[in-house]
Amino acid sequence: MSEVILSMKGITKIYGDVKALDDVTIEIKRGEIYGLVGNNGAGKTTLMRLVTGQSFSESGEMTLFGAAAPEEIRKNRKRTGVLIEDPGFFLNMTATQNLEYFRIQFGIPGKDVVSKVLVDIGLEDTGKKKYKDFSLGMKQRLGIGLALLQTPEFLILDEPINGLDPAGIIEIRQTLLNVNQKRNTTILISSHILTEMANIATHYGFLSHGKLLEEISSEDLLKKCNAYLDIRVENTEAMCLVLEKELNYLYFKVYPDNHIHLYEGLEDGERICELAVSNRVGLSGIERRVVNLENYYMNIVEGR
């Protein structure tokens, strides 16, 4: 059974009259890339600040690497790497010089640490190029490099791909996959760019207005994000009988707005139409659709 790196149960955080987090429960296991998904203001940054000790909750329980006592949690935070805000690099220094400065400040032994991190984040060939001349993607990767200096077991990243162009997003994706696979580093990453989260996360937590709507693995999400036929009829009961008795279909779901989602026989649209008409079920439309991560998130946010 995989080790639980982070567990939060019933966490509530209030700012004034606003519940930034409302009875949130999540669990992250070793080796996972946990994607915290939500729009701006959903509570993603607040949750990360609680994990990193930058803020404290009104209620709930948290364990980090199995420790629940506040003093033990503080000790275990040394096993984490964090990138939530701009780390404040020196503009006229190179990637090596910047990381070397912070290595000394953190008291991390061994100069080879910096060179190894630069390889992991793909900045080993930047040479004398100064930070001020870096692309946004390079700056974000150097920020991740800073979070990796102490060889953390748990990496916490808040919106690391925000504002990046497609090339920069790909760079960050490859960096994080490399760190996760080569170092076996567990990663908690937040983003509202759902198409990219689908390329990297192994598990998801969907946040909206401070509430955790669902936790789901990428495997289970893929099963739910299948193609289907959306059949709209006046009489769903009669249409279900057509699907079961005349077409031998069993894999479908009925929704209260007179929609039926059929997950098999996707190429039989014409035959389904013929039977729907002949059985007078009041067919008003049939359409092939595919659910992606964005569709799925919006569906659960809107209660569908």
Describe the protein's topology:
Blueprint: E1 4-15, E2 18-29, E3 33-37, H1 44-51, E4 59-64, H2 70-76, E5 80-83, H3 95-106, H4 112-120, H5 136-148, E6 154-158, H6 166-183, E7 186-191, H7 194-197, E8 203-208, E9 211-217, H8 218-224, E10 227-233, H9 236-246, E11 252-255, E12 259-262, H10 269-278, E13 283-290, H11 293-301
Helix pairs in contact: 3-4, 5-6
Word description of this protein:
With 304 residues, the chain is α/β, with parallel strands linked by helices. The chain contains eleven helices and 13 strands. It has helices at 44-51, 70-76, 95-106, 112-120, 136-148, 166-183, 194-197, 218-224, 236-246, 269-278, 293-301, and strands at 4-15, 18-29, 33-37, 59-64, 80-83, 154-158, 186-191, 203-208, 211-217, 227-233, 252-255, 259-262, 283-290. The strands form three sheets. It has a six-stranded mixed β-sheet with strand order 5-6-7-3-8-9, with helices on both faces. Strand 11 (252-255) and strand 12 (259-262) form a beta hairpin. Helix 3 packs across helix 4 (112-120) and helix 5 runs parallel beside helix 6. The longest helix has 18 residues, at 166-183. The radius of gyration is 24 Å and the shape is elongated. The model has no long low-confidence stretch (mean pLDDT 91).
